[in-house]
TrEMBL record:
It holds the Pfam family PDZ_1. Keywords: Apoptosis, Hydrolase, Protease, Repeat, Serine protease. InterPro entries: PDZ-like_dom (IPR025926), PDZ_sf (IPR036034). This is Pro-apoptotic serine protease NMA111. One of its GO terms (molecular function) is serine-type peptidase activity. Residues 24-99 form the PDZ-like domain. One of its GO terms (biological process) is apoptotic process.
Length: 154
Protein backbone atom coordinates (compact mmCIF):
# COMPACT_ATOMS: atom_id res chain seq x y z
CA UNK A 1 0.00 0.00 0.00
CA UNK A 2 1.28 3.45 -0.82
CA UNK A 3 0.64 6.29 1.62
CA UNK A 4 1.79 9.88 1.80
CA UNK A 5 3.36 11.07 5.07
CA UNK A 6 5.27 14.32 5.50
CA UNK A 7 5.22 14.88 1.72
CA UNK A 8 6.90 11.51 1.12
CA UNK A 9 5.44 8.42 -0.53
CA UNK A 10 5.84 5.34 1.65
CA UNK A 11 5.35 1.70 0.68
CA UNK A 12 3.72 -0.26 3.51
CA UNK A 13 2.99 -3.96 3.87
CA UNK A 14 -0.58 -4.46 5.06
CA UNK A 15 -2.15 -7.74 6.15
CA UNK A 16 -5.38 -8.47 4.34
CA UNK A 17 -8.43 -10.10 5.88
CA UNK A 18 -11.27 -11.80 4.09
CA UNK A 19 -14.17 -9.31 4.11
CA UNK A 20 -16.74 -12.11 4.01
CA UNK A 21 -16.26 -12.70 7.75
CA UNK A 22 -16.60 -9.01 8.57
CA UNK A 23 -19.97 -8.44 6.94
CA UNK A 24 -23.41 -9.10 8.34
CA UNK A 25 -25.48 -11.23 5.97
CA UNK A 26 -28.17 -12.51 8.34
CA UNK A 27 -30.23 -10.87 11.08
CA UNK A 28 -32.83 -12.61 13.25
CA UNK A 29 -35.46 -10.81 15.32
CA UNK A 30 -36.94 -12.96 18.07
CA UNK A 31 -39.05 -11.85 21.05
CA UNK A 32 -37.96 -8.26 20.41
CA UNK A 33 -34.27 -9.16 20.43
CA UNK A 34 -32.16 -8.44 17.33
CA UNK A 35 -29.56 -11.17 16.83
CA UNK A 36 -26.69 -11.56 14.42
CA UNK A 37 -23.27 -13.16 14.22
CA UNK A 38 -20.81 -11.05 16.21
CA UNK A 39 -19.54 -8.22 14.04
CA UNK A 40 -15.86 -7.47 13.46
CA UNK A 41 -15.36 -5.12 16.41
CA UNK A 42 -16.83 -7.69 18.83
CA UNK A 43 -14.49 -10.36 17.47
CA UNK A 44 -11.54 -8.01 17.96
CA UNK A 45 -12.37 -7.53 21.65
CA UNK A 46 -13.55 -11.07 22.52
CA UNK A 47 -11.14 -13.70 21.24
CA UNK A 48 -13.08 -16.82 22.36
CA UNK A 49 -16.70 -16.25 21.42
CA UNK A 50 -19.24 -18.18 23.55
CA UNK A 51 -21.48 -18.54 20.47
CA UNK A 52 -22.25 -16.82 17.17
CA UNK A 53 -25.70 -15.72 18.40
CA UNK A 54 -25.05 -12.13 19.50
CA UNK A 55 -27.71 -9.68 20.68
CA UNK A 56 -27.30 -6.22 19.18
CA UNK A 57 -30.58 -4.53 20.16
CA UNK A 58 -33.63 -4.96 22.38
CA UNK A 59 -36.97 -3.43 21.35
CA UNK A 60 -38.79 -1.42 24.00
CA UNK A 61 -41.81 -3.18 25.49
CA UNK A 62 -40.73 -6.55 24.10
CA UNK A 63 -40.48 -9.83 26.02
CA UNK A 64 -36.70 -9.51 25.75
CA UNK A 65 -36.79 -6.18 27.57
CA UNK A 66 -39.34 -7.36 30.13
CA UNK A 67 -37.20 -10.41 30.98
CA UNK A 68 -33.97 -8.34 31.11
CA UNK A 69 -32.05 -9.45 28.05
CA UNK A 70 -29.54 -6.87 26.90
CA UNK A 71 -27.43 -5.94 23.92
CA UNK A 72 -23.96 -7.54 24.01
CA UNK A 73 -25.30 -10.86 25.36
CA UNK A 74 -24.54 -14.16 23.63
CA UNK A 75 -27.29 -16.81 23.67
CA UNK A 76 -25.62 -20.21 23.98
CA UNK A 77 -28.63 -22.51 24.66
CA UNK A 78 -32.41 -22.48 24.22
CA UNK A 79 -34.28 -25.03 26.36
CA UNK A 80 -31.02 -26.93 26.82
CA UNK A 81 -30.26 -27.08 23.08
CA UNK A 82 -26.86 -25.58 22.13
CA UNK A 83 -27.13 -22.59 19.78
CA UNK A 84 -23.71 -21.94 18.30
CA UNK A 85 -25.05 -20.33 15.12
CA UNK A 86 -28.14 -18.38 14.08
CA UNK A 87 -29.38 -21.47 12.22
CA UNK A 88 -29.04 -23.53 15.42
CA UNK A 89 -30.94 -20.80 17.27
CA UNK A 90 -33.78 -20.73 14.71
CA UNK A 91 -34.06 -24.50 14.86
CA UNK A 92 -34.30 -24.39 18.67
CA UNK A 93 -36.92 -21.61 18.89
CA UNK A 94 -39.19 -22.96 16.16
CA UNK A 95 -40.75 -25.39 18.66
CA UNK A 96 -41.61 -22.73 21.25
CA UNK A 97 -45.34 -22.09 21.16
CA UNK A 98 -46.86 -18.61 21.43
CA UNK A 99 -47.31 -17.33 25.00
CA UNK A 100 -45.13 -20.07 26.47
CA UNK A 101 -41.90 -19.92 28.43
CA UNK A 102 -38.43 -20.95 27.34
CA UNK A 103 -35.11 -21.21 29.15
CA UNK A 104 -32.10 -19.34 27.82
CA UNK A 105 -28.47 -19.76 28.76
CA UNK A 106 -26.60 -16.55 28.20
CA UNK A 107 -23.01 -15.35 28.42
CA UNK A 108 -22.24 -11.65 28.80
CA UNK A 109 -19.50 -9.88 26.89
CA UNK A 110 -17.48 -10.09 30.14
CA UNK A 111 -17.77 -13.92 29.91
CA UNK A 112 -20.23 -14.25 32.82
CA UNK A 113 -22.72 -17.11 32.25
CA UNK A 114 -26.28 -17.09 33.62
CA UNK A 115 -29.76 -18.34 32.83
CA UNK A 116 -33.02 -16.54 32.04
CA UNK A 117 -36.60 -17.56 31.47
CA UNK A 118 -38.55 -15.67 28.82
CA UNK A 119 -42.19 -15.81 27.72
CA UNK A 120 -42.60 -15.28 23.97
CA UNK A 121 -45.36 -13.26 22.30
CA UNK A 122 -45.45 -13.96 18.58
CA UNK A 123 -48.50 -11.77 17.94
CA UNK A 124 -46.61 -8.54 18.68
CA UNK A 125 -43.03 -9.80 18.35
CA UNK A 126 -42.91 -12.49 15.64
CA UNK A 127 -39.73 -14.31 14.68
CA UNK A 128 -38.33 -12.77 11.51
CA UNK A 129 -35.22 -13.22 9.46
CA UNK A 130 -33.40 -10.79 7.17
CA UNK A 131 -31.03 -12.38 4.68
CA UNK A 132 -28.67 -10.66 2.26
CA UNK A 133 -28.96 -12.28 -1.17
CA UNK A 134 -26.31 -12.60 -3.90
CA UNK A 135 -26.86 -9.04 -5.17
CA UNK A 136 -26.61 -7.56 -1.64
CA UNK A 137 -30.34 -6.92 -1.24
CA UNK A 138 -32.04 -7.72 2.05
CA UNK A 139 -34.82 -10.32 1.89
CA UNK A 140 -37.39 -10.44 4.71
CA UNK A 141 -38.90 -13.71 6.00
CA UNK A 142 -41.47 -14.15 8.76
CA UNK A 143 -41.02 -17.51 10.47
CA UNK A 144 -43.83 -19.44 12.13
CA UNK A 145 -43.47 -21.73 15.13
CA UNK A 146 -43.60 -25.45 14.28
CA UNK A 147 -46.06 -27.68 16.06
CA UNK A 148 -44.00 -30.39 17.79
CA UNK A 149 -46.83 -32.91 17.44
CA UNK A 150 -46.87 -32.45 13.66
CA UNK A 151 -43.11 -33.00 13.46
CA UNK A 152 -43.36 -36.21 15.50
CA UNK A 153 -45.94 -37.63 13.04
CA UNK A 154 -43.65 -37.14 10.03
Amino acid sequence: MKVVRDKKILDLRVKLAEAKYMLTDKIVCWAGCTLQAPHHSVRQVIKNLPSRVYCTKIRHGSPSEMYSLAATYFITHVNGVPTQTLDDFLEAVRYIKDNSYCKLRIVTSENIPFAKTLKVNYHYFPTTELLKNDVSEWVFKKLEATDIEQVKKI
